[in-house]
Specification:
Layout: H1 11-18, H2 20-44, H3 49-75, H4 87-95, H5 102-130, H6 134-161, H7 164-184
Helix pairs in contact: 1-5, 2-3, 3-6, 4-7, 5-6, 5-7
The structure holds fe (ii) ion (2 copies).
């Protein structure tokens, strides 16, 4: 899905459904981090108007998602609790290429964001299809569609600031990196990733 090279282990969604409270808490923080990451890109690249134009509405959407997840937690009487270590995102950051031009550095950030959106989208799709709670299925379907749009936003921004050939090549490298990270991560039903 969305170019990802390794589908999620089918066992994940069953374990996740059994730990849906933990998934929702982790998910809330995924949305918060998505919003924060877009804000930080906007303020780190104030000269890039297109980036700002594209990402300002994404900040609002991610924050709306955060609020939606909080509502689901409230419905279940679950507290948000503290953020957890996000091994998947940490490993992506470790693999980012250091150095290069300002645009290439920006590209690394955009590719990582695109991958996180794509993997979230893939897992939300599984939740929207496989779990028994009808309202949560709809909830995850709506989010899946939205995150797919964000994936496109990040890839389009990479194409805006970097040559098409570079984007094509580096994106393929990132897809391989991501697949390797997923292959080596423990299968956890209390994490979105
Ligand atoms: Fe989101
Ligand atoms: Fe998103």
């Amino acid at each position: 899905m969305l170019g990802l090279k390794l589908p999620t282990d089918p066992r994940w969604v069953n374990i996740a459904e059994k730990n849906i409270g933990e998934i929702l808490i982790d998910h809330a923080y995924c949305e918060q981090k998505a919003a924060s990451s877009c804000i930080s890109l906007i303020i780190q690249y104030p000269e890039k108007e297109k980036l700002r134009e594209v990402l300002m509405p994404v900040v609002s959407e991610e924050w709306a998602h955060f609020r939606m997840v909080i509502k689901e937690l409230d419905k279940r009487g679950l507290a948000l609790g503290k953020p957890r270590k996000d091994e998947y995102v940490l490993q992506l950051y470790e693999k980012a290429r250091r150095g290069g031009s300002i645009e290439q550095q920006l590209g690394e950030r955009l590719f990582m964001n695109a991958l996180i959106e794509a993997r979230s989208c893939e897992r939300f799709r599984l939740l929207s299809q496989e779990i028994s709670d009808e309202s949560l299925r709809e909830f995850y379907h709506e989010l899946m569609v939205s995150e797919a749009g964000h994936y496109v936003n990040f890839i389009d921004l990479a194409k805006e600031y970097l040559p098409a050939e570079y984007v094509k090549k580096r994106w393929q490298e990132w897809l391989d990196i991501e697949a390797e990270i997923i292959a080596n991560l423990d299968l956890r039903g209390d994490r979105v990733h």
